Amino acid sequence: MNKILVGLLLGGILGIFDGLTAWFYPEARAGIVGIVIGSTIKGLIAGVLIGVFARKVNSLAWGVVFGLGVGLILAFVVAYMDGHGYYFKIMLPGGTVGLIVGYATQRYGSAAHLQRT
Amino acid sequence: MTWLSDQVVDRLQATLRLPDLSGTRYRPIRYLARGGMGTVWLAEDTVLDRRVALKILDAADHSGELAARLLREARILARLEHPGIVPVHDAGTLGDGRVFYCMKYVEGQRLDHALRNINSLPERLRLLARIAEPIAFAHSKGILHRDLKPENIMIGSFGEVLVMDWGVAKVKGSAPTACLIATPATTGEAAEEKTEVNRRLDSSSTSATSSLNLPETGHGGIFGTPGYMSPEQTRSDPVDERTDVFSLGAILTFMLSPITTGQADSSSQPQPLRPVPRPLQAICAKATAPERVSRYASVEDLSADLARYLEGLPVTAYREGFFERAGRVSARHRVAIVLVTAYLLMRLLLIFFSRR
């Protein structure tokens, strides 16, 4: 499967799952729909970015580092916008999701096909 | 009267043995190996200023049979331009009528010796896949090796794999040769740790000469080495690519057997595989099946199954059970499973602590 597609799928699925876990926090349960949508979009953006990177750089180690970085940055943005100061609760899972997507794109995504000219 | 010392006598004998290469571009350096049909010499190509190996008939062959055999071997090698096969540079006749051919001089270790330094199973399997490449190439050119064994596989100083001894190779569709060649497997322990590749090149010649004293066989001939020779080869039945598949399977069994970890001795029959995973045992069993219809149809099929095993995919030779399949899949995706589990655990811990 295409590396970008792997990133997009996995980012989306993990994003939905990440958002759904908000149900376990009573204070966030009321706005769960918004959280799931936001988390999914965040996952998709992270997936595309990490997938594009994986296409350019064919390295498992760099893929994982880049995924972790993207996950942390996006999670930081979300935590900052949230304004409640849940940096740890949002950034730790966000970074892990990025790391998983970074690993998966490099490990399971197929390299771009060479085009004949 | 002054007696010559043994050292001086040895030197004189060595000088006398040097072939007369006058009239050729080669200058003899030293003896490498000797066989019944000819001798392999290390020589210098004075035109290109490089070292080469020369295989020269021991004596002028009036019947022309040995010369024809040597030239046939050279022609077969010349047809096989592949990085895994030693290239032939030249062939000709010396001033005294002896036929010779010139090939690349390569230094390295025999497979059975090289295995002492290769303890990782995947590395050994990858090595076998590389051995299979020149064989598959030869098959694509219509040539069967028929004498594959660890002694005929050399690992060069840069890790390159070379398949040697094409002396009993058969061109598919050619008329059967009426002679018997059964090369005994040599003892690995006795051989030097660091050997010249070309030292091995003459074993086929030894066999060829001995063959002349042996009775002819009805269908053509028995070629190969016991233990690595397919059953149809021992019966002198017609052979095809699957005879080399059998030999490769026997080499794989040898590479995976305990004897290769300590005392390398390929004269021993391949031992039963002990700690080897079942799919690999099945690959060995399929490759060395007594009936050739049960074997892999080609060397590529054998390599493909090995590649599947290395990638953690199911192999065609083995039907795995549910738990084996689960174990293989989890081993293949171990890192991903660990990452996702770690993520889920972290999520659970975050929920747990946030509720306290």
Q: What is the count of distinct domains of chain B?
A: 3
What number of domains of chain A? 1
Q: On the 0-100 scale, what is the average pLDDT of chain B?
A: 79
Fraction of residues of chain B in helices? 25-40%
Number of helices of chain A: 4
The CATH class of the largest domain in chain B, by name, is Mainly Alpha
Q: Which structural class best describes the helix and strand composition of chain A?
A: mainly alpha
Which strand-content bin applies to the residues of chain B?
A: 15-25%
Largest sheet composition of chain B? 5 strands, antiparallel
Query: Could you describe the largest sheet of chain A, including whether it forms a barrel?
Result: none
Please give the number of β-strands of chain B: 13
N- and C-termini, Cα separation of chain A: 23 Å
Based on CA atoms alone, the radius of gyration of chain A comes out at: 15 Å
Helix-residue proportion of chain A: over 70%
Strand content of chain A: under 5%
Number of helices of chain B: 11
Unreliable segments of chain B (pLDDT under 50, ≥5 consecutive)?
177-220, 262-266
Quickly give the CATH architecture of the largest domain in chain B: Orthogonal Bundle
Say what the CATH topology of the largest domain in chain B is. Transferase(Phosphotransferase), domain 1
